[in-house]
């Protein structure tokens, strides 16, 4: 009766197991088809932008009409709009703001559907530092800052201060409070995290030999003490190594922050920029914790809408600037109407160039700045996903910002977090994914070549790690690829020569874009916008 | 027959590993820290298997009989393990004791299986073959389980169904063994009957896995449920016995008809009676119309504006006879206008000013409710009052959740109200708290001003209500803001302490 098992049988048994698993998995997938939902690919007009590069529109476009203004602002992002805001505040009305898109806002634009509004890019601003005077002025004007308490601290509109719970992190099967990993950490890991925060707080309070803050917002106000500038010459990774910050949860967190703010990893971001993220923010308020943030359902689109209201007479949308050239102290701007493709020209005393700097290389005739090829931009994918309901997950209730320790993405932001309704209703989540692993050129290719189905599947699979049943809840998904999402503060860029040259005015062309800072955020964009406007105002009054 | 038994080795080892994975996964779901949970579960499990193997030596005769019994037990315990862990998590004091007992029981039983099986097979194979074959099947089974579990079982069946399914496999093995050894087994018929009964139980568990949580809910109500519905905002359940009608929203008791008069009289009259000629009243929440019933006792009242989120709830309390009997049809009174809206949203654009606002929201048990207790909310409320207006806010229990209660008081004070905290004893709730916020200092009414026919509130009881014992005084103090949700944090920790202690 004894029947020994032959090797063949053993192997057959193993193979049988494998096949059984495969067959049943295929069957299950077949019998539970992944739910279908509409998925649209939106995004900044790639076509129009590519017109600039591919068809030499600079040469072909013959303007049929010419108008004249005192100032032309090229680009209606935060930088351009802020320049307009400042000009108008100081009595100059005779200017135009040109943007190639059908709406202004650039990286701070937003969208809207039946459920509500949501951001396409920028979605928050930290409460402002004492030195961020333009930001404070702007916030006071909009009523975001409602007044001051006896100690002089700003009182913010509470509906805009990010409501609690602000952040949660998915780790080890449930969500915990905050984004710094907490659950299941070893003693040395916890100690290292504490030491890290102590180090950055020291940097936050530090001033250089020139008496200036080591890390200021806007960054151009920072100390020029070589001790701090040296940090720009090494990568954040190098700095972590040098300071013996080695444990995984901490490095995960710091890398997360670099990707979140700069779309770029530890290896690429300079230590100066990496530390600036933590040490730069010194905002305090009368009615919130230090370093809080303000946010709106439509993200920084809220600020755009306010500026649009102020600048409605000046804004011209659907206006692609194809050429900017200078003759006899006038600057001529050639504009193509994106619908009719007709060309017109605008002659002005000054141009504030607030489009990204790599665009400048293509449209500014005989440009002084010759380092455009050194500019490096991080590509991003943003998705807005409408959900019937966000599935419950273990641990902390949904927060404003929801992140997974196990994902390449930055997680999602709840667009309706600031609402004051108690209704449980459909909501929109904004999913952020910086393509930071590869060289930006390679990633940009990947961003554009994958089709919407592939992207939506990837995103759903990623979200399923936190919410296994989320696919059944999706009403629709819209995708927004940002090919040149934000400039990267790579090693040596912020305090190197390229950026220095890039800020210089070129005759009567003055530059105002967050690119000029080497890092992209509202405060930097606004600073360069206002500074450019100031330069122009000075030029107008002397000329 | 030998093959049949070897296949058995394969099945039981698959089941065994699946139970271990289920326990590890649930433990890390519920307790967090997957590394610790998995390694302790595996450790306890393997050690228990050792105990099981050791115990197998005491099985002297009729090995097949014991084997069948072991299989039946594994089927039962292993099969229901996931649902047991999930359902009891909320109810046991120390979940780890439950977890590790369950893991040990399953481990011991699994540890018995293979030695028993080998002894059954002993007569049929020589030793070398026996060991090699049984362990080969055992390990292949383990491989299968480890692949099936993450790839198919968890994503498609979920943990509860998976555990029932594998329980059924163990029962299958039991039934199969009964069949093979039908000649030698004692108690054959009762074994078989038990096996089939267990099969039916597990099949039901499998089929109704989704309902299991629902069953747990129903058992939470002491009285028969006479009405239940899901509205877009909440689950409304009304239970009734001969003397008592109770309303539950999302499982939380809102009132019991036996003593709701205490709650609502205390909510309305101390503020109302103290006012000179109150005419326009605002009620936020309180869609049951019970506070409105009390308000209508004052002839000076000209208008009552009730703002509630849930139209279904309002309709219920306007139309259902049982309920209109309780609220005296108050919602159908011509002075009452009902507005279906979110209180906070509506308040930010109020068309008129009120003498008194009665705020009767559910307790601040989640973040969206917490916003309705924030300083920002109270600022909007204050803006909707006439110059000497008042608000009264139901503010949870100053006994069970004293810091939460005083947080409401502090928050109202922070926006410039004079606050008067008070509390009343409502048997079905316990000691319950309210805070009056007034724009001028509050003075309790004298006896004449209370409307006739009150059963609880009088000038004497109000004097008592204003008095707080030492054990109700706060130990922390904070203002509830949208950006700190201090109240929700306090409320969660205070009530969970109380629930744990129970
Ligand atoms: C995914 C993502 C998330 C972000 N999140 C945040 C955040 O949360 N907080 C934050 O502060 N910042 C965030 N940022 C950074 C954001 O870039 C800045 O806040 C800010 O919006 C930058 O404004 P800008 O004016 O410098 O640039 P842009 O927004 O790039 O504006 C440039 C404008 O120029 C226009 N333009 C370009 N070429 C031409 C042409 N030839 N003719 C006419 N018009 C042209 C473009 O259409 C665009 O409107 C985020 C960025 C991205 C990509």
Question: Which helices and strands, and how do they pair?
Answer:
The complex is a heterodimer of chains A (543) and B (502).
Chain A: H1 7-31, E1 39-41, H2 46-54, H3 57-60, E2 65-74, H4 78-89, E3 95-98, E4 110-112, E5 117-119, E6 124-126, H5 133-142, E7 145-148, E8 154-156, E9 167-171, E10 174-177, H6 187-205, H7 226-229, H8 236-242, H9 248-262, H10 271-279, E11 293-295, H11 301-310, E12 315-316, E13 319-327, E14 330-337, E15 343-353, H12 357-363, E16 377-387, E17 401-404, E18 412-414, E19 427-434, H13 440-449, H14 452-464, E20 474-487, H15 497-503, E21 509-511, H16 522-542
Chain B: H1 2-31, H2 34-55, H3 63-89, H4 95-121, H5 127-180, H6 188-207, H7 209-218, E1 225-230, E2 235-240, E3 245-249, E4 252-256, H8 260-274, E5 280-285, H9 290-295, E6 303-308, H10 311-319, H11 321-327, E7 336-340, H12 343-347, E8 354-360, H13 367-370, H14 375-383, E9 385-394, H15 402-414, E10 418-426, E11 430-438, H16 459-465, H17 486-501
Parallel strand pairs in B: 5-6, 5-8, 6-7, 8-9
Antiparallel strand pairs in B: 1-2, 2-3, 3-4, 9-11, 10-11
The structure holds flavin-adenine dinucleotide (FAD).
The site of flavin-adenine dinucleotide has 39 residues of chain A, from helix 4, strand 6, strand 13, helix 12 and strand 16.
Listing every helix as H and every strand as E from the N terminus to the C terminus, the arrangement of chain B reads HHHHHHHEEEEHEHEHHEHEHHEHEEHH
State the name of the first-level CATH class of the largest domain in chain A: Alpha Beta
**Based on the structure, what is the oligomeric state of the protein chains?**
heterodimer
Unreliable parts of chain A: none
Radius of gyration of chain B (CA) equals 31 Å
- How many β strands of chain B by DSSP? 11
The greatest inter-chain interface is formed by:
A-B, 44 and 51 residues
Report, as a whole number of angstroms, the end-to-end distance of chain B: 55 Å
Please state the average pLDDT score of chain A: 92
Query: Tell me about the biggest sheet of chain A?
Result: 8 strands, mixed
How many helices of chain B? The count is 17
